[in-house]
Amino acid sequence: MDKPGKKYTDSAMQEFLYLISQYLLYIKRTRPPGIERQKRILKVLNDLVLSLVKLGIAADAVRIPDIDLYLKNTCQGLSSGTTRDNRSIIRAFLRYLYHEHRLYEKDISVQLISAPVFNQDNPPRFLRTEEVSRLFAAASLSTPKDLRTNAILHLAFSSGLRPVETAKITLDDIAFKQGELSVPSRKGVNPAVFPLSEDTVKAVTAYIIGARPESRARELFLGLYPPYEPVTVYVIRSSISQLMRKAGVLGTPYSLRHTYAQNLLESGASIYEIKEMLGHDSLKSTKKYLHVDIKLMRKVLFNDTI
Questions:
Q1: What secondary structure, in 3-state letters, does 109-128 show?
Q2: In this structure, are residues 230 and 219 in contact, taking their beta carbons and an 8 Å threshold?
Q3: In the chain, helix, strand, coil percent, each to 5?
Q4: What range(s) does the Tyr recombinase domain occupy (predicted)?
Q5: Is the bond preceding 227 in cis, omega lying within 30 degrees of 0?
Q6: What whole-number distance in Å separates Cα of residue 253 and Cα of residue 236?
């Protein structure tokens, strides 16, 4: 982008400052803030405007990626509370610009939702394609434990189940001919049916034939030594964690769940479909998984192309 000329910059700055002054008058009339709060609002908006004008962006041309860039550059080192407050101030200002001045064709403030995870020490991590390939390549079929781990990996990757849900899978939940997995009891409110790939069906079948002990228990995954009881959640987690370390892949067993959510998002699934497949009882929980890719999440949520 060419650097904006001085006249353009001055004009854009004057327009922004006028809008900010009008906004402060507006909030004083509708919900008067204290003096210190007014100072904070003014500082955040002035800093934002300065950043936008330097980029040559006029008031009527603001887009959410511009706001994201500002937040990314200014929120490093700030507390999560301060970052949320900055975003709240900007969101309210954008809402005002739409409703009172009609600067935009739609209310873009609603797009400034889940915070990009600039301040989180451990943001949800999904696996890249190359990491997924390494993980599956590291899976061995040499021992009964290997066969069990391989089946656990395939099911976790293809269904996004929580480790506790994987531990509860029974033989009756799998329709091998149809290639489907039914999960009747979930943390969320609805059961779910997952399609199983041919590779997943083969991995589960190989485990049942080659490693699963004979038992009256209907749970799919059993211990390898007598009395062959159903495995605990710990076994599910440790099986995946050990394989990830072997493959040199950073993450936790839940990274497979994040990856499943990411794959659904990239395939064009709606947030409501993803909510059901993840077994969430609220969209708020689903958004935590989807902020792994903010641009795609906005497209799913708002059919947004900016």
A1: HHHCCCCCCCCCCCCCCCCC
A2: yes
A3: 60, 5, 35
A4: 122-302
A5: yes
A6: 8
Look at strands 192-195 and 180-183 and give their pairing. antiparallel
263: Cβ contacts below 8 Å, ≥ 6 apart: none
Of the ranges 100-104, 150-154, 302-306, which one carries the lowest mean pLDDT score? 302-306
Q: Calculate Rg over the CA atoms of the chain.
A: 25
- 3-state SS, residue 193: strand
Spell out the alpha helix ranges (H) of 160-302: 163-167, 198-210, 233-247, 254-266, 271-278, 283-290, 294-302
Beta bridge partners of 195: 180
Both tokens of 290, joined, read 């989807």
Topology, domain 129-302: hpI Integrase; Chain A (1.10.443)
* Cα–Cα distance for residue pair 90/102, rounded to 1 Å: 16
Convert the pLDDT of each residue in 115-132 to its tens digit.
444 334 444 577 888 999
pLDDT digits (tens, 9 = 90+) for 150-202: 999 999 998 888 898 999 999 999 999 999 999 876 655 567 888 999 999 99
Please provide residue 125's backbone torsions phi and psi, each rounded to the nearest 5 degrees.
-115, 125
Annotated domain spans of the chain = 6-111, 129-302
At 71, the amino acid letter reads L
Report the distance separating Cα 295 and Cα 87, nearest Å.
17
Q: Where are the beta strands (DSSP E) in the chain?
A: 174-175, 180-183, 192-195
